[in-house]
Amino acid sequence: MNSKKINIGVIGVGHLGQYHVKHYAQMKNINFLGLHDSDPNRGLEIAKQYGVKFHKKASSLMKACDGVSIVTPTIVHYEVAKRALKEFNCNVFIEKPITKTVDQANDLIKIAKNNNLIIQVGHIERLNPALKAFQQYDLNPKFIEIQRLAPYTTRGTDVPVVLDLMIHDIDILLSLVKSEVESIHASGVSILTDSIDIAHARIRFSNGTVSSITSSRISKDKVRKIKIFQDNLYSTIDLLIGQTEIYNITQDSKKIKNALRTEPFSHDNKDKFITYEKPSVEDYDPLRMELDNFVNSILKIEKPIVSGYDARDALDVVIKINNMILEDIK
Ligand code: NAD
Hints:
By secondary structure, the chain is α/β, with parallel strands linked by helices.
């Protein structure tokens, strides 16, 4: 195992960046060199709060670091990440979405590859403990329904709901279905803002899996649910409360014995049962896990859980969905 301490910094310390600072400041296995923000008042405030250095220039931090978290508004992810990768040979953790366009994402991926550097992206829902609890089951989904509803806030409304919220679920979907996207149908409407506030997409994969995804930022209550249907299995994953429930149709006596509840399944008159299980959901902080994964990926102990390629693929699908909706409402 590599025992060298690497140097890490954070660029952009607004709402989310401050939590990157908080976690890095607690890590014993790195040298946390501090932060930069284009707003010096904000930068100094967060640096003071965590007792770390404020760098007036991004370049001084990038120059000294092996890796930086980029937690600036999406619109500047590309220019900041390109500088870190190209001018300073610095690995990057970029908050989601990776960039504004797929061309920009491809350019960053190419630069990173040529320089043997890591791009990791903050699709944090992939590390949601409730989703992780589901991953011990054999996956072969036939139908996946995902709902992400949120009450209105002004945060994130500079981009359509598809780029702000639905992108989380597209990333999860692409990680669950190992097949090419075959077709997309999408619709959406603006209600409160000038861009799309509610969107629905129906995505079909070439292996036949179908998914239905709804995202809203103008709902009364928060909902973040995934329902997965496959042969003899139905699962609901509640990403918000951290709960995974599994219904299986089985003849396996061990599964029947270990289930929380069982009911005879009489559909085809065989000795089958519907079992109900609630796998235990671990208690951990997904952001801390992501950042540990970034550090360990730089040290070559682990691989990024969400790579630049994954983030580019999710962006590609959401941009297609968004363009389809815009075309539809023209
Ligand atoms: P924010 O506006 O609260 O903070 C952004 C900060 O970046 C500000 O302090 C601003 O001064 C600074 N900044 C702007 N341009 C800069 C530049 N060129 N160089 C250095 N600093 C710069 O935004 P936020 O809500 O923290 O979001 C930041 C990023 O994180 C966005 O890409 C957003 O999509 C993403 N995000 C991800 C999640 C998630 O669930 N993974 C949640 C929220 C936000």
